[in-house]
Amino acid sequence: MVKVHYFFDPLCGWCYGASPLIKVLVNTAGFEVVYHPGGMIPRLPIEPAFRQHILQADERIAEQTKVQFGQAYKDRVLSKEELILDSYLTTRAFLVGIEMGVTAYQMLKSIQEAHYVHGAKLDEKESLKNIALSLGLDGNEWDDRMELSESNLYSELEASQTLMKELEVSGFPSVIAELDSGLTRLPLSAYYDNASGWSTYLSTLS
Predict the structure, then answer these.
(1) What backbone torsions phi and psi does residue 20 show, to the nearest 5 degrees?
(2) Is the CB of residue 116 less than 8 Å from the CB of residue 70?
(3) What's the pLDDT tens digit per position in 17-32?
(4) Count of alpha carbons within 13 Å of 81, Cβ hemisphere only?
(5) Within 13 Å, how many C-alpha atoms sit on residue 91's CB side?
(6) Interval 146-194: pLDDT, tens
(7) Into how many domains does the chain fold?
(8) CB atoms near residue 187 (< 10 Å)
(9) Disulfide-capable partner of 192 in 3, 5, 65, 147 (CB 3.0 to 4.6 Å)?
(10) Sign of the alpha-carbon torsion through 140, 107, 59, 123
(11) CA–CA separation, 119 and 81 (whole Å)
(12) Distance of CA 109 to the CA centre of its chain
């Protein structure tokens, strides 16, 4: 079994772009994927002047990876209403979902799609609860666990950031495999929009 460390952030556009490759990795026999959230964006209001830059970056991601950004998301970014991004709250939801039995892949996928496809306000706890309910989780238990999740968040982020320094990881998404030959950074960006080539490449590692 090859252990693979996946460094990501729920609100990282390139992580969303890499999601088809992560799906292949998760579903390939012989690999164990360990998720390491990095805490990219502490709660941050996005100024209107910066929003066009975000959409331009998203266009590059869509062009290179062929993932789709929903119109509801684009409309929200361009709207005059307040836009707040919060990796910390979404990471808490990611961790709580796993605690409640959702796979890491499914929980991250659901958060990414809520944000990048449906334009959900993931800085609001109610929007995150709606994701949990859509996954069949109990709402009352979700509320209780979310209230207690902050301390676990900081321990997870600290562990991830420490490991990133040790492995010289500087950005998201990054995937590092523990191979017999040593730690190896897997070339995600070389396989954007080439899931079959990525699958073939992975078969040479396991």
Answers:
(1) -65, -35
(2) yes
(3) 999 999 999 999 999 9
(4) 7
(5) 28
(6) 999 999 999 999 999 999 999 999 899 999 999 988 999 999 999 999 9
(7) 1
(8) 10
(9) 65
(10) positive
(11) 13
(12) 7
Burial class (CB in 10 A: 0-12, 13-18, 19+), 38: buried
Strands (E), 39-179: 44-45, 84-85, 174-179
Domain containing residue 62: CATH number: 3.40.30.10
Residues 6+ apart with CB under 8 A from 140: none
Q: Kindly give, in sequence order, each residue whose CB lies less than 8 Å from that of residue 141, ignoring residues fewer than 6 positions away.
A: 100
pTM of the model: 0.95
> Which two three-digit tokens encode residue 65?
């990876």
Structure tokens at 46: 């996005």
Please count the residues of the chain.
Answer: 206
CA distances to 40, 74, 99 from 96, in Å: 18, 28, 5
